[in-house]
Amino acid sequence: MGSEHYFTEKPTSEPDAREITARLRGKDYRFVTEAGVFSRSRVDPGTELLIDVMPLPAQGRVLDLGCGYGPVGIACAGEPGLEVVMVDVNLRACELARVNAKLNDVAKVDIRHGDGFSVVHERDFAVVASNPPIRAGKQVIYPLLANAKGHLLPGGVLCVVIRTKQGAKSLERHLATVYSRVETIAKSGGYRVCAAYA
Q: Which of 48, 66, 68, 83 is most open to solvent, judged by the fewest CB atoms within 10 Å of its CB?
């Protein structure tokens, strides 16, 4: 992939579609993936952990921030009562997320191409979920995750998964300066899921 990252807006790598499967929140899903998107060979373990442990309301709106080809948002949309907004800077990822929403027959999804909150103006999300592109650097990730607070309902929660060795604890300390309460809700396989409450 050279110097190109999955958070590149328009990947130049040749498309090379494949289909993968995953069991998420007790249901089976199929995803079409391609070169130039994050974790194309399988739903990565950090994303799986995030999906399985994040607290979802019985009804409300969820934002999948940095949706990739869509496993987090689509798994949320598979739960009755939830409406999901999915956003990614990678145009190819957004196109795949649309394909995968149809493939998995989930209807209540709104998939948007854009950089972070530039295309998200709602402020009524119960949950914002993200597996952020840590390689983009703290100077990109920290403000993005702090900005999520303004888009959450009172008592809403930001759920973030990060590898422990890639700075999970320092991220939690930073979020604690912005959010009313921050806690680790899961640890597995070198990953941590952090919940930050608005």
A: 83
pTM of the model: 0.90
Q: Which domains does the chain have, with CATH numbers?
A: 18-197 (3.40.50.150)
DSSP letters, the chain, are: -TT--TT-SS--SPP--EEEEEEETTEEEEEEE-TTSTT-SS--HHHHHHHHHS---SSEEEEEET-TTSHHHHHHHTSTTEEEEEEES-HHHHHHHHHHHHHTT--SEEEEESSGGGG-----EEEEEE---GGG-HHHHHHHHHHGGGGEEEEEEEEEEEEGGGTHHHHHHHHHTTSSEEEEEEEETTEEEEEEE-
Summarised one tens digit per residue, pLDDT across range 15-68 is 678 999 999 999 999 999 987 787 777 899 999 999 999 999 999 999 999 999
How does pLDDT run across 44-54, given as a tens digit for each residue? 999 999 999 99
- The C-alpha atoms of residue 62 and residue 119 are separated, in whole angstroms, by 15
Q: Torsion-angle region of residue 2: left (phi > 0), alpha (psi -120 to 50) or beta?
A: left
CA dihedral over 9, 10, 14, 17, signed as positive or negative: positive
